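Session log. Operator J.P. requested a structure for one protein chain; no other inputs attached. Running the standard single-chain path with token output.
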Amino acid sequence: METPTGLSTRRERALVPVLVFLSAVVAVISSLGAPMIPTIATVDHVSLAEAQWSLTITMLVGAIATPVLGRLGDGPDRRKVTLAAAAVVVLGSVLAALPLGFWWLIAGRALQGVGVGLTSLAIATARDALPAAASRSAVALLSVTTVAGVGLGYPVTGLIAQSFGIHAAFWFGAVISALALLLAVLVLPEAEHRERRPLDVLGTVLLSLALVGLLLALSEGENWGWASGRLWTVAALSVLLLAAWIRHELRSAHPLVDLRSLRNPVVLTADVAGLVAGVGMYLLTSLVIRFVQTPTSTGYGLGASVVVAGLVLLPFSATSLMSSKMVPVLTRRTSSALVLPIGCAVSLASVLAFLFARDQLWELLVVMGIAGLGVGCTFAVMPGLIVAAVPADEVGSAVSFNQLLRTIGYSTGSALCGAVLQAHTAPGRLLPADSGYRDAALIGCAVWVVIGLATIVLPRLSAAAAARNGVRVDEELMVEESIADAVAGESEVPVLRAGADR
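Structure written below.
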């Protein structure tokens, strides 16, 4: 008979693999609708614009659920919240898999969107349950897994849908999400030592309405028309709601997201990098997927199937996972302050490669392999910086906010791809000119240059501002060292928390 100590040790060893599997499942399921949009439109007899909602609704619900789950996960009910959210994903997967009709599929996809917030809970769990060095490594791996899962989900679900139909693909999602839930039940630890805090209901409502409006405008911009009055009205109202939310959060005793943490240069740099890097990542991914499937009769494109387009993303997943192991080595061999800029430089190289070499399939495989290294390095660092820079009872909320900014970045990058290609589509034509891909790639280059410069400049500007406000400058200058420690796990990270000297 196994002793309680032996059982506890086994659960501890299984924790990281289970958290990684849970995050990968969430990433696969959240991207489940993307390669199947044309098939859904055909099977359910709806337009492509309506079928697009199988992806849009998941993103919208995920954007709302992420900060809420993050805040709830900072309390004593983290295990219960995690398991409840995972159960909702299983229910949504089954509902989407059943042949009940299009709108039941959309309802299922909405429930699956709740799972987007599970990654921040997984990161907070790793931060609490593991020793310092192990938790930093796990946090980096979990962050990259969300990226790699997207690249894995496209070809797998596309292949299943093409071979066995769209319902089989959703049944696949139901099976893996049920397995993830079962494993989570077996190994997730309790967090009863956490202080219970009230949920900021007003902040949740304001942020939800603002995000729904912003993401709806980004997702539907191509269908509504980027110059339409409806789009700009929705966008303007969303910005006003977002401003009201920011004002409320700064005045709230128990905010949904502690925006005051942005005074910390580490958190500010990580959040800005997450937002803009999300734009760059999805801009290139969307370009490659569309380019691969473009008929050769246009004079460019490869005329490949949706499955082949998904397979092109496999090198992206593989190299992004590799990068989580490379970052500590890179940190030791270069200046710690160069980790984020190096990741941005590698991502820039991938866009340049797409700009000049996209005539053969192998060239695009190389492009996505390089992109995975760059994005993986960038995303592997960010959560570790946040975890090291905020109080333990704010980890879930702070990481979920970073995940939320990534989601907005993903939507913006996808929308930007559509807008640029649409601008290069002649009247009466369905497909854009090759110059559209060139101009979109040039914009992608600009995005990575901007974020690369930001990761260098923002910490220094924040340090200067802190010095003017009377904060000890020597502590602010530790920002560079915190990058190395947060990803390498070599020592406890010296950080400056927002308002530490007040």
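Operator note: The CA atoms of residues 222 and 418 lie 7 Å apart.
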